Fold:
Amino acid sequence: MQLIGREHELTALVDRLASRRVVTVVGPGGIGKTSLALAAAAVVDGRYPLGVHMIDLTRVEAPDAVGGAIAEQLGFPSFSALLDSPTDQPALLVVDNCEHVIDGAATAIAQLVDACAAPVVLATSRSPLDIAGESLVVLGPLTMPGTGVVDPDVPSVRLFLERASDAGVELGADQLQVVGELCRALDGLPLALEMAAARTRVMTPAEILSRLGDLDTLARPRFRGADRHRSLRSTIEWSYEQLTERDRLFFDRLGVLAGRFDVGAAHAVASEPDHDLSTTLSSIDSLLTASLLVADQVAGVSLYHQLATLRTYALEQLAARGETDSTWERFVGHVIRQVIAVMTQGRRGWDTAVLGDLLDLYDDISASLRWCVEHDADPDRALILLSVLWGVVQQGHAEAVSTLGEAVLERWPEPTAPLWADGAATVATCRYLLGLPIEAIELADHALSVASGSLFAPCTLRRVIGQAHWAIGDAISSLDAFEVAAAEARQRDIVPLAMELDVFRAHILAETGETDAALSALRASRDEAHRNGSDINEAWAITTEGYVLLRADISAAATVIDEALEASRRFGYPACISANLQALAILSVIEGRIPEAADRLIELLGNISTRGAVSELRTVLHVAAVVLERAGNPLWADLAASAASLPVVSMFASPGHELLPLPTSSARPMPRRDATLVARRELVAIRDGAPVALPAPDETGRRTSDNVFALVGDVWDVAFAGRAVSLRSSKGMVDLARLLASPGRDVHCLDLVGATTDESSTGESIDATARRQYEDRIRELQVEIDTAEAAHDHARAERAHVEFDAIVDHLTAALGLGGRVRSAAGSTVERARSAVTQRVRTTIKRLMDVHPELARHLTASVSTGIYCSYRPEHPTEWRT
Structure:
């Protein structure tokens, strides 16, 4: 199989083999060490006159048997005979699976290299050999997609899609988001991805994702390869069994740490009470050596994490020991101590260091909060954890925090605990960010009535009330809420929050015409933030000043926005970077530099996609629509409608106060993902100077070239009847493109599949037993289709339809009139006809889910058979 996503590692390994005698590929089980080694061996085979020799140590059980196993597999009677071999002709020895006999492998390989000048050794192991001259190539997970729009070319996604295709399942563009989630959940681990892809024969990606807590979901019961690759469980056990009992227990306890952790967290949660820090460091080193732990260097600090599959296994072992509850209690106590420290620090100054600490804790806070909801009798611990999440809900976590927060309020609905109002502030903020401003106001107003005993809640609740009132167009109530909240914050000495509220209020003053007062307030807030060392407050004040100047003084705006973008990048604050890229795009539009505006928006879409910050899409799509409209691109109306359909969840989204208003149109909104793809594609065309083709309208007034069926990279961009979508490439899409490009012309099925000759008869093409089995399966599938459609389970129905059509097509090709078995004469034509029919039908069904108008048009206009054609009822032109 093709090696996917390892181009850099393969190049490094090939280069290393040219200059080193011993190279070891190191990584956890299932990471693809053997595949990489074999790929490298194939590349360098010609370098070695004596060739490449594979040595598998899987069945070697004793370290002292390694030398003999190497000799035996190379055809020598003993290891000593191998060491005495007189040849000086180079050979490459690929010694696979060294980890379970690591000491014996290290000794044997060192002796071999010392005694013989000929061989170069390429080893694979979960642990380094630690011998003189060894060069390591450390193999990590495949690149994973971000949380935004999923690119099918990201290595982990590409591997999953290709292996699913190998299993007979073609996944469409509508499945990409859940495939991306699945790739992230499996940490880009190739073996896990391959096992999950194999499961798509019987489960959808969403179903697989929902069952990942069970390692046995990722098993291959009919797998004929090595036992350790039969399932993820056996792969992990292979390494786990090599640990000492102390390190196994340490590994199991680490399972409760959901995110990255430092030595302090590991010591607090996983070590024995009487162990010192040096013992903890020793255990961490053992797990790293066994590739059961991953180390990262972040700002000069070593952080660690378990891959998701390893963590699942660790938690299973912890439960078997009966230590789950006690370890979780230690963990929750440790997290709460850290949370209180962050809250104390944040009151003094809100900078990127505090925000970074909070974001680093996010996974652990979420895990602790879920534990408390399920196990605590009172809400005190849960409310502490929920309250601090108020600081991260605007950093791409609103939906997840909302789920946790609503669960807390459902469990403890009565505001009797001291921090209930603080927890409600977090939930109300989530509601606002999820486009529910009225519900946010209702909860915040209720919580305010019981917030008098809280330090933060009177401020944070009024903050979300101000934001939500602005979202529904009530500027007066918004200004009042921010003014009172800022005064409360200063009275309570929560200066960073007071400065933020001052900036919000100033922005609304500017939007409602009080520009001078807004600029004065922003400059005062900026100076105060600089004096206090609150870099986030400073960045937001400068950013908002730039937006205000776009209405008042364009030349001054350019200077301030450049300064704000530089400050945002220096402070490392992504949300501010996005806001300033958008401001620069607006500035470029105002000054008539449309390609430059498109370039800024392309960068901005990438920024948003990487962070998963979908709350910013409304304003970005609006500005993108303006750019398209100024460039004469008719798709501007679709983007404008799509932007207007999204909730107002940003202070820079100003319905009724837009800096760049657009004409009204009757266009319909697209799904968010489709709108993002269309925006990116059209902005790239504008940036690169591609002309917008606008032919004269036909007699109906419709521009026929608005219809698009074009392949861009590996994605088909399709537009019809005012709606644009993007789909992953497939053979059926290629077939349809050929037909649409030649309306009214018959195309032979052999032309579509690329065949050129018709094979002769080879006898009957199907026997009686196979025919009965096919007919039985057709009846089963018909029942499954009816059941799935009745339950509105479209994914299950689609899978059954695909198999149903394939079997029917095969039987049609194999049976003659009256159900008589055909000979295989003309089988090439029949196979081509059947293949094209199946491909086109399946593709039109995929289109029905994402573009029903086009699917219905194609159903009525496309015919398949030995000759295929596209004959629309009315003349229809396509840009292909």
The CA atoms of residues 267 and 278 lie 10 Å apart. Residues 219-230, 692-705, 755-766, 815-826 have pLDDT under 50 and may be disordered.
